[in-house]
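Mods, move this if it's the wrong board.
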Amino acid sequence: SISRGLQKLVTYTAIYFNMPNSPTPRLATVSDDRSVQILTPDDEGIPTIYHKGSYNGVHSIDMISEKELLIAQYDGSVSYWKKNSKGWHCKDVFPIHSRWVWKVQHLNGRELSFISCSYDGTVKHTNVITGKTKTLISDPSHKAILDFALAINHEGKLSAVYAITDKTIYRWNNDKEIITCHLSLETDWNE
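Not the wrong board. Structure tokens:
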């Protein structure tokens, strides 16, 4: 039997996020017992969510809708969650990166998919339905991809991904080419 209530072991990480159309922030925590718990600030009666993922913590959360979310995890995976009348349930875990996942963002389309970036130096596109993953950008020196931004065209389709490491900006342009720009604080910094 799975216990209910607050996590009993050490909490590794916690991150605040907002639900669509709700001003109330939520808090997701990951504990040493491999559980994830999603709380509102004044509610300590939320059931703890257990699943095989969530090792070592959560880095970011992307809300797909009020009943679906994606969690970027420190173990290199992204987990997909759905909410029903009994609470949040992990529907799938995608172990697609070899190091921390910094960010995850869903894409709207016929099939649910997401883009993720990682400390392993990659940006990947994953289809939630099929589980297939494609590497869009890979830093040759394996420097952490710290963030990305998506460009969506007038038809609502992904047309470009911009990603950044500590010294490089990448642009993936819909499989046509990857453009790289190297930055140097000594020569490229202007005040």
